[in-house]
Amino acid sequence: MSKQKQKGREVPGIQGGKEQVFSFPHMGDYHVPIARLLENMFPSGRVLVPPPITKQTIALGSRYSPDFICAPFKFNVGNYIEALAKGANVLIQTGLGCRFGYFGEVQEQILRDLGYEFQFFSLARENARLKNAYQGFRQLGCPHSPAKFLFYVLIAAESIRIMDHFAFIMRERAGFAQRPGSFEYLYGCMLEELRQVSSIKELLAIRRQYNEAFGKVEMRQTQHLLRVGIVGELYTLMEPYSNLFIEKELARHNIMVSRRMSAAFLLFGKNSRKSLKDTGKYMRYWPGANATDSVAQSRYYGKLGYDGIIHMKSYGCTPEINAMPALHNVGKDYNIPILYLSFDGQTNETGVLTRLEAFVDMLEMRRKTFEEDGLSGRGHRFYFDKGSRS
Amino acid sequence: MIAEEYIWTEGNPIEAVKNLLRSLKESLDKLQEEAEVCAVGTTGSARKLAGVMLGADAVKNEITAHGVGTLSRYPDARTIFEIGGQDAKLILINDGVIVDYAMNTLCAAGTGAFLSSQAKRLGIAVEEMGDMALRSLAPAKIAARCTVFAESDMVHKAQSGYRKEDLVAGLCSAVVTNYLNNLGKGKVIQPPVVFQGGVSKNPAVARAFEKETGLPVIVDENSHLMGAIGAAILAQRAAAGRVFDFRAAERTFSTRAYECGGCANQCEVVCFYQDGVLLDTWGNRCPNYDRQKAALVG
């Protein structure tokens, strides 16, 4: 074992003489830019996108994860195991501002204990710095110069920005397309193009082309537009399987869904000091990860006169639990109802759908009485919030 | 109200709906005047199943149904406590509109299931619990955080010589403490307060609520039927003028659950048949399946 490791270090790019197969965990549709990035970085290797998340994935992940760890960990472990079974031998992980930052180490150990052989590279903590990431990639066999490396990172970053830009519009408008599914279809086409992209020029063309296409989709006129903001823990928000496709369900109820949390937000829009300030008087300290963002965004939705907020987290997410008392106060002060949902890799939708249906009924009834009282000046037109869609 | 029935599903909603139909038909037949079913509404966890079975006009979640039902009787109610067999809800109302609600999420400690399992352990019927608890002079203090803690607390108290009444009284107030801790978090409880759901038939729990909140708690004589009343009102509003047939009770309904292998999603699809004919399917997530379904169900 140790001999093999030694060998891997001597000849970068080749692990025991075998072809390198790169893989990574799923989160929403981000496998598109990430797979492209890895392909660019390691031209001699192969990139394996793990099979889509299914019940089997979460069952596998739960079996081999600590019981009280949060659901994202379990989903990741499930993804890794399924990818390893398909032949992956280099696994990539990222890290974030809560215990997610240490997931990589634990997951690596769990997988090694299961008897898998692989290289593991975690972009957490100091490895998240560009310089260290470059060195790590070099060690894994990336043949590029720093300039080329930066170029590919730039392409990936811009792809993510474009994706999130259109995903934001899609979430807002999906419930109102004249032909249901139009936005989802366009978005899918765009992802296919992003999968092939290789220059900034192409990226700009994609952005221009889809700006036009999205603008051309015919929309239904609606009188009582209900607007819901979604805040909370990032993985649960961004991986639709882990929140039981709640955004689609809301769109089906003809609700405009706004979610500012996205990979682009985390990479380019996040600023802990600013978001702490934006929580107003509701928070004085930063309790980790995205707690202040949840509160600041909720306050923002409250100010805009949104009809409701849905706060989602994986069960046991400490930063978000810390955000909840502040959210209670935001809800009270801005008179905006907040639905709290916790997910732990369960697959039964009935409980969540019941709460969601009741929430939607409640928002409709509230809206009706507001209108009867002549209180609703806001909310009839689409409000596109340009600033947040980095 | 001209006919009513309250039964347990016992894990078999299809059979339960059939039994309900039979007994409702019986009580309608006994009436002097001719009665006609104008609309059908269903609510609860099996609302979809029952709704398809009966061709319901309104299929609504239980939170809305409870709110609507209670508001029809108590138009100025501000707070609804609802404790059923498996879950508990807290509904806040302002000017006749539901403005906030909470539903227990993780465990069944503050619900009827907790009371009935403990009643079984003590060897008494769940219906007797309330009156028994009211006879207690010194209720035992029982931890309410979790069913397992409560149970071990109760067993210890029993061994140390507490009387059964005191234990039962302790259990009834444990339910209330758990309910208020879980659902009442950060919510302002305003009078008038209405208490309903199956557990509201237990007078000791109602009294414990009054003691904890310091507010009078109204328990309607039909408190266990409020959800059904709400569903009926919603059905009346949505009535499509379909003719209802009590013979649904004699039909055979069956379900078949399978894992769709059409794509990587592997949805669990439930097919619902009436006399061997496919009525409806649900559980699928993808548009491909919707098209297939449209062709199958017609």
Give a verbal description of the structure.
The complex is a heterodimer of chains A (390) and B (298). Chain A is α/β, with parallel strands linked by helices. Chain A has 3 domains: 2-144, Rossmann fold (3-Layer(aba) Sandwich); 150-221, no CATH class; 223-390, Rossmann fold (3-Layer(aba) Sandwich). Chain A contains 16 helices and 8 strands. Chain A has helices spanning 2-10, 31-41, 55-63, 71-85, 103-113, 130-140, 146-173, 182-196, 200-216, 234-238, 246-252, 263-269, 272-278, 291-303, 318-334, 350-372, and strands spanning 21-23, 46-47, 90-94, 119-123, 226-232, 255-258, 308-314, 338-343. The longest helix of chain A has 28 residues, at 146-173. With 298 residues, chain B is an alpha/beta fold. Chain B folds into 3 domains: 13-63 and 230-250, no CATH class; 75-219, 2-Layer Sandwich (Nucleotidyltransferase, domain 5), CATH 3.30.420; 253-297, no CATH class. Helix content of chain B is 41%, strand content 17%. Chain B is built from 10 helices and 10 strands. In chain B, a hairpin with a 2-residue loop joins strand 4 (88-94) and strand 5 (97-103). Chain B starts with 12 loop residues before the first helix and ends with a helix. In chain B, 39% of the residues are buried. Chains A and B meet through helix 15 and helix 16 of A and helix 3 and strand 5 of B.
